[in-house]
Fold each of these.
Amino acid sequence: MSILIRLMQSKFKNKVQQSKWYAKVVSTGEIHTDELATIIESNTTFKRGEVQGLITELVDELKQQLSDGKTVVLDGFGRFHLTVESDLVAQQADFNIHQHIRRIKCKFLPAGNRLAHTGIIQQTFSKDVEVEWIPGKAKRHS
């Protein structure tokens, strides 16, 4: 398992970050629910339609639980919760939900665990993933 990267030049205007280079992941494409269902069908006893139905029901129930104010934890996958963006007001009494809430957003925190020796959180989805240069690009220091 590996992801591909390319280098991008910073567009920041401040002198410290101006013209510096950073790595950016290059997507190799998208995979949608029907394709995932086909793959899962070949690895399990579930039929493709059953997998699609379960995913649809999961999404619907996620929406319901989030709209009820719950944080939804899918063990081994991650946590979903809703947040709001709002305007600032000078006084608490001035705040109007209909006027000052700009939007509701869904946040996702991937599952992971904290490494004891460093304290860094290792996300489940990025564990054991290698990084490689995009093919055809000049190799740089690895």
Note: The chain has a mean pLDDT of 91.
Amino acid sequence: MKGSLTILFCFVVGVLAGLFADLPAWVTESDLTLWVLYALIFFVGIGIGGDATTLSVLKKSNVRIFLIPAAIIVGSLAGAAGASVFLSDVSVKDAMAIGSGLGYYSLSSIYITEMRGEVLGTIALLSNILREIFTLLAAPLLVAWFGKTAPIASAGATAMDTTLPIITLNSGKDFAILALFSGVVLTIAVPILVTFILT
């Protein structure tokens, strides 16, 4: 719980600073956040490489490791289809297209905008951004309530980059390699799924 509150506090302070503070250009107009993310992933990599047991987890998993991204895809599409029941202006097909973004908001929103228009593309963008933010804020609670693979499922494609450090922190190094693998598979799957659903 403490971890979630700390992340939420940092996020809120960052939003307020962006809104009201006169920040220097090197903060707002540079690739600073991207380099910080690279640094986090680098240190996660050191942690994985320095722990012999983490790679053995991957070897023991065999084909079963594909069950994680497969289950995430099925769950995301089923959840999106179910949510469409409560959204009178969004068809099941369009809802599933949004769900097939799997957290990869930049690519999926571009695809959906081109194929279905700006409104649905914007919904896809916001939906997938919220998925990432939810994972960053709720990872400790997800682990406590649903187990150590829950943040990987919640993160979707972002498990390979932006949410990987928080997954490693809360689920442990053993799950970092699973998160990375799942994130890569889901990232590859996004354009295939979106195109398949909308054509």
Note: The longest helix spans residues 118-146.
Amino acid sequence: MSDTAEEFHLTITSREQNAVDLLSVAAKLSHHEIKLAMTKGCVWHTRKRHTQRLRRSKKVLQAGDEIHMYHNPRVLSQTVTPATLIADEGDYSIWFKPYGMLCQGSKWSDHTTINRFVETNLLPQRPAFVVHRLDRATTGLLVIAHAKSAARALSSAFEQRNTKKVYQAIVHGKFNAIDNSQTVQTINTDIDGKTAVSHVSLLSYDQSHDRSLVEVNIDTGRKHQIRIHLAAIGLPIVGDRMHGIKEKDDSEDLQLCAVALTIPCPHTGQSKEYLLTDELQLSHKFS
């Protein structure tokens, strides 16, 4: 088996066949390697028109079923820092998502996603549904639903903007509001033709490194909104390789973190606020 990405598509011809044996022969991998690939989410099972990940090596197959494996050793070897549980509310939970952890998998794997981590680590075990997202490079608070009813209610709350999200960012340069009589600067530059509104205020300034720690409240949730808005006012986020200062940021992680989250309880509608502990906030390491 090479280190390059390969796909395998097999059709089951009898109930006596099993996925591990077939894939082992087709991919020239050991049974252990195939089972590990299954746990990491790169093996899929199709029956009629329904396709889903295949994780159980002993699943009984039927003639006409199809087995698909999307095997990329580079992807499967990736690791991430574990997520941290902030609050377990039964039908949903709040987590600290670390740098590099994904909110959505692909056909090649899902083992570095927050929902897969929660499914395999939260006790008692429950299904995990992502109801909103953070970029791969962004850290901070994330809600995971554990029941479809909670997922629907929470997803609706985010879509209707009945939530509040507060971020901290470390940026290059000194933040000064345009109007010195105001401590908060509102940025309302459209993103991809859509309304986007961010409110920025200064928390601290490090003169020796010419960096500012800012707080950002957002009214909308456009892709890369905070990164784009801060760069637009001359304050690119440290570690932002897309909108930042390339020669300065190649070795640093993105310094953007969701530190506070307010959501309506999916059962009562009562507003609930969650805060990151001090040691997980960017302010803890800013000096």
Note: The chain has seven helices and 14 strands.
Amino acid sequence: MIVKHFEKIIVGAALAAAATTLLPIAKSTMRPLLAAGWEAGEGLMNRTRSIVQIAKEEIEDIVAEAQFERMKKQLDQDIASSEQGDR
């Protein structure tokens, strides 16, 4: 039983020693990776915003064209009915 606890103490001490050595290395390695990931995320967000803006403009154009066609059709009907009334 003491041997099991002794092994755990040895493993814990080895991990603590390794952590003090590996943490600075991991930190210096991870920082550029995180920065690159952050930049990639920002780029993705900018592209997404651009795509959404283009889609919004396309939808607005379609709606405006539909409104124009509806107004043109109504105006043509009004002109046709006023011409028939003049006869």
Note: The radius of gyration is 36 Å.
